[in-house]
Structures are given as C-alpha cells and as structure tokens.
C-alpha cells in the first residue's frame, strides 16, 4: 500500500517528510552522518533487508541526500557519501534524538550519548534563532501564513500581523 503524497501541501514540514519521512531514510542518513559509506555498513548497523536498503539508498541518491562514488577500498564497488543537503539534516536528527531520549524511552539505559567534546558533558540541545540568538519557543515565536497560503493553511494559521505581540 503506497502512502499519501505530501508534494502538493504548502507546508515545509510536509515537503520535508515527502523526502525523508520514511523511517529507514532518516536512519540511513543518521549512519551516513556518523561515517558509514558502504552498503554492508548500513546493512549491518540497521539490520535491514538488502532489497529494502538498496531501494532506500537509490531514493536518497535520487533526492540529492547522498551521492554514489567509486569505492576507495574495493575496486568495482561504490560508496555513499553525504551531501550538503543531508548535512543540513544534522540538527533535525540531533533534535529528534533529544526528543526520543526525553519522551520515547523513559527509564531506559542508552547505548548512545551526545556529548560536548571539550567537557564530556551530555548535551541538551535547544533551537536558537540565528537573528536574535534567543531560544525558539511557543511563547516568543509563531507559525503564520506565508505569501501564498493554501485555503487549509489560511484557515489554520493567523496572518503575520495577527500574531505580533503588541
């Protein structure tokens, strides 16, 4: 059964999910960002069927999230390398990692930690507005209609002027 396409939605979240919303895709990108490059590395880490892995890798290459290059280790084979587009997913994966630790695995002992390389302390990520340096929160920031919202977006979100704090 094919999933619904989000390609026609006027929402950046929906369009991002159109490209990387399948869970194997995010896990493959996670592994690639952590240094995996070869088919067998992905297969071993993820314990995914070869057919499913090949399909997902091809989709990630087609969408520009990975590129195929000749292997430097074994002639006649290929490696998968991250692109700028996939590196731009890194903060999303860090945020998803932090959310998962907080909400999806309560009371669990973890096999992976995110640490500060200088101090060794666990990292607790926050999202910061590059323009102001302030943390983004529901109290200080709002989603509003863009330049050409669909009817559904216009019904769901306020206009920019309606969201401004007076």
Descriptive tags:
single chain, 166 residues, 8 helices, 2 strands
- Stretches with pLDDT under 50, minimum 5 residues: none
**Helix content bin:** 40-55%
**Helix count from the secondary structure assignment:** 8
Q: Strand order within the widest sheet?
A: 1-2
Structural class designation: mainly alpha
Order of helices and strands: HHHHEEHHHH
Please report the total strand number as a whole number.
2
Largest sheet: 2 strands, antiparallel
CATH superfamily of the domain at 12-87: Winged helix-like DNA-binding domain superfamily/Winged helix DNA-binding domain
Beta-strand content: 5-15%
CATH topology of the domain at 12-87: Arc Repressor Mutant, subunit A
The CATH first-level class of the domain at 12-87 comes to: Mainly Alpha
Straight-line distance between termini: 49 Å
């Amino acid at each position: 059964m094919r999933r619904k396409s989000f390609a026609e939605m006027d929402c950046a979240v929906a369009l991002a999910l159109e490209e990387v919303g399948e869970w194997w895709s995010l896990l493959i990108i996670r592994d690639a960002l952590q240094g995996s490059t070869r088919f067998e590395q992905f297969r071993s880490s993820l314990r995914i069927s070869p057919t499913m892995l090949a399909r997902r890798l091809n989709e990630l290459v087609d969408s520009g999230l990975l590129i195929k290059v000749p292997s430097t280790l074994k002639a006649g084979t290929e490696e998968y390398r991250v692109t700028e587009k996939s590196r731009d997913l890194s903060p999303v994966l860090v945020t998803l990692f932090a959310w998962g630790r907080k909400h999806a695995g309560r009371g669990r002992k973890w096999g992976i930690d995110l640490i500060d390389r200088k101090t060794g302390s666990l990292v607790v990520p926050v999202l910061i507005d590059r323009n102001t340096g302030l943390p983004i929160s529901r109290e200080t920031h709002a989603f509003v209609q863009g330049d050409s919202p669909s009817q559904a977006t216009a019904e769901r979100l306020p206009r920019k002027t309606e969201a401004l704090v007076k």
